[in-house]
Input
Amino acid sequence: MQQQPLSQRGQKRREAILEAATDAFLQHGYDGTTLDMIITQAGGSRRSLYDYYGDKQGLFGAVIRYHADKLVEEIRSIDVTGMSAREGLTMLANNFVFALLEPLNLELYRLLITQAPTFPDLGRTVYQAGPELLLSELEQYLKHLQREGQLPAKLPTPHTARQFLGMVKAEFQLCALLAPEQLPPKSAISAHVQDCVTFLLDNR
Output
């Protein structure tokens, strides 16, 4: 049976449940979270929660996908039309790195990794809708820059997009997760991103 589109009120109710569930999962972990905790914070009924998400597993999956989609859409919404290669790549790379380093995204990443063995399909879905999609779109952007004559002649190769994302990401996410007190300031991270862009564009 085809689902009917949610009304504006229904959409707000659904988002309230997702936000309340996010708080609960991050505070108590997956195993320590109960549906009653979420209902108490978000309001509504157990019936409506089941209607939307089925059970706690379904709700957990919805929470992870909700925030992963928000992160990806924030990056995809960046308009680099008319920018030079240096400006466009710098803007995209800065937004990519700083999105990864947002405290909420770090906590959700940690939560997803701990639950990945229990939710293998969810991990695969998030990867395909997140990193894999962004990688594909960066590949298309690099091909566009090549057609515009803004990349070195030998670029892009089949590996350029992955190499560039890995280079700008560096160990920052891992540092933020394991030793946040050692994370460089934003100015230093931005300087690193600029150096990565220069390395790519001047690699002739």
